[in-house]
Amino acid sequence: MKKARYLVEDLYTADPAAHVFNGKIYIYPSHDVESGIPENDLGDHFDMRDYHVFSMDDIDGEVTDHGVALAVKDIPWSGRQLWDSDCAFKNGKYYLYFPLKDKTDIFRIGVAISDKPEGPFVPQEAPMKGSYSIDPCVFEDEDGNHYMYFGGLWGGQLQRYRDNKAIECGQEPADDEQALPARVAKLSDDMLEFGEEPKALVILDENGEAVKAGDHGRRFFEASWMHKYNGKYYFSYSTGNTHKLCYAVGDNPYGPFTYQGVILTPVVGWTTHHSIVEFKGKWYLFHHDCVPSKGKTWLRSMKVVELEYDANGKIITIEGTAE
């Protein structure tokens, strides 16, 4: 899998969150559709209405579409836009975490439950208390604790909050101020709520200083992912308007994390969402681009390629599809 492979031809899929459950890879992507909404910086043209779950027995094998696992119309508190989701397993149940705008057009994070990794998932009556913004990623540490990482700028509304509280006229900090951080919170034992107040996930530069808001090549924008390699915690994310996947490394799930470099250079299309998973002794990067849709940034296609580390644990940069 040194050369990236597209996984689904008959649907547009993006933001793939890949996990190994029961010896198979299960993928939880967004389902892109042509809505006819003009492009804007708030992402209104990403008007997704449902999720499909996919599975693979082998990395180069057949991809099974398990059909619709959850739809906007089934969620009691729904407004619009089902964006990047993730799934976790605990005590025989599978928990699908999803961002969705409520009836007031504010993003919240919801939870839906299933007995099977492919769903269908039954949503809770209300979103997680105190949840906001987008792109939930749930990481299970070796001690069995689960942590949610979340947040996204611009259309993801993270700039509207400070210290977990909504502010008036929310905007990004000035270029010379600390960048807005992603958030991290340990989940409650029942997996349905935050088990604590979400904390700032700070990314430091090589001098131990927090990355500045004006450092668009390194600052967090969206698309959190967490994985562990050789005892270190690897927090990876998208830089958004500079279109890179980057990563930072820390010694515990909360950080701080020190910036290390670029995982994936820009791809065709605006966004780069991803997940990183180990399967049968190798590591893989699941991501997406817009090559099959000829560059329509709201019609994306997920793909997978092998991810490699050097002897020092640094991720070897993968070249994207952008010219």
UniProtKB/TrEMBL annotation:
Key words, A-Z: Carbohydrate metabolism, Glycosidase, Hydrolase, Polysaccharide degradation, Xylan degradation
Domain of life: Bacteria
One Gene Ontology molecular-function label: hydrolase activity, hydrolyzing O-glycosyl compounds
UniProt-annotated site: Important for catalytic activity, responsible for pKa modulation of the active site Glu and correct orientation of both the proton donor and substrate, residues: D135
InterPro entries in UniProt: Glyco_hydro_43, Glyco_hydro_beta-prop_sf, Glycosyl_Hydrlase_43_Enz
Gene3D superfamilies: Glycosyl hydrolase domain, family 43 (2.115.10.20)
GO BP: any one term: xylan catabolic process
Pfam families to which the protein is assigned, alphabetical: Glyco_hydro_43 (PF04616)
PANTHER family reported in the protein's UniProt record: ENDO-1,4-BETA-XYLANASE (PTHR43772), PUTATIVE (AFU_ORTHOLOGUE AFUA_2G04480)-RELATED (PTHR43772:SF2)
Family: Belongs to the glycosyl hydrolase 43 family.
Annotated protein name in UniProt: Family 43 glycosylhydrolase
Protein source organism: Draconibacterium halophilum
